[in-house]
Amino acid sequence: MSSLPKCPQCSSEYTYEEGDNYVCPECAHEWPKVAAAEEVRVVRDSNGNVLQDGDTVTVIKDLKVKGASSVLKVGTKVKNIRIVEGDHDIDCKIDGFGAMQLKSEFVKKV
């Protein structure tokens, strides 16, 4: 049993080490041994300000809410956000709508 990781592109289990990289002999993909988790993800609002957990933001565009008959209006304040992985990178609770996820490109930091 090999303790080397599988190839992230083709899931081959035949990877090998070469210098500071892992190499897949099946698809020729190379990736660094250093864990990708060490990279810090920076989420920015529409103005380029860095967002962090616990920030308060304001919605800058009317947003249609899937499954609701009303829209999220411009100027709605969202308190105590959480930064999450994915396309919609802000997790929050909004009064009148409940828990939802927003894209950082549609908010600005207060």
TrEMBL record:
Domain of life per record: Bacteria
Q: Where is the Protein YjdM C-terminal domain?
A: 43-110
Residues in Protein YjdM N-terminal domain copies? 3-32
- A single Pfam family it belongs to is Zn_Ribbon_YjdM
Family that this chain belongs to: Belongs to the YjdM family.
Protein name, please? Alkylphosphonate utilization protein
